[in-house]
Amino acid sequence: MFIFVVSFLMYLLLVWSGGGIPLIEVLIALILASVTMAAFRSWHKGRKISMRGLDPKRWFGFIYYLFGPFAVGLAKANIDVAVRVITGNIRPGIIKVDPGLTSDLAKTMLADSITLTPGTLTVDVDEEGAFYIHWIYVEDENPSEEQVYGSFGHWARRLAE
Question: Would you list the domain boundaries of the chain?
């Protein structure tokens, strides 16, 4: 159902021009969303489909994360990278961190948050769920989650698992 709703709304968003949406566009959106949902179910036969993605509490939590902790982490990282570029105080390297996430959505959310933050880049995620992260200043060869990406792991667990 989540795939259907998202596909339907995305199509309507793409055809919306600021005024009303013609009925034919709504019908096309219904047909395309139905086809997309059927294709998803045939491609992922063993996967259980849940309604968790439609929970408004999760959406508000994600919006809070985006404009709260993520925005603060992004601002801090920008300042840190700017200072490191000016002073030349860098020690780049790739480190391995295991955040212990189980769902693909949580892993994707954390990897994207890390990559969007200046100074860090998610290079790979192995089968066990460990992240390989390129870090602009490696302080420790076995750093904690907090040292590398702050509270992003906590939020990925909270919102996506």
Answer: 2-54, 56-160
Answer whether 109's CB lies under 8 Å from 156's CB: yes
Distances (CA, A) of 71 to 9, 68, 133, 135, 152: 26, 5, 20, 19, 11
Nearest to 145 by CA among 127, 133, 137, 160: 133
Angle at 45 between CA 41 and CA 48, to 5 degrees: 80
Query: 22-62 pLDDT, tens per residue?
Result: 889 899 999 999 888 888 777 767 666 666 666 788 889 98
- The per-residue pLDDT for 126 is 92
Distances (CA, A) of 40 to 53, 82, 110: 15, 43, 24
Could you tell me which residues come within 8 angstroms of residue 58 by beta carbon, excluding any fewer than 6 positions away? 52, 159
Answer yes or no: are the C-beta atoms of 77 and 120 closer than 8 Å.
yes
Q: Give pLDDT, residue 53.
A: 67
Q: How far apart are CA 22 and CA 12, in angstroms?
A: 10
H or E element in which residue 123 lies: strand 120-125
From 9-18, 50-59, 115-124, 135-144, the region with the lowest mean pLDDT: 50-59
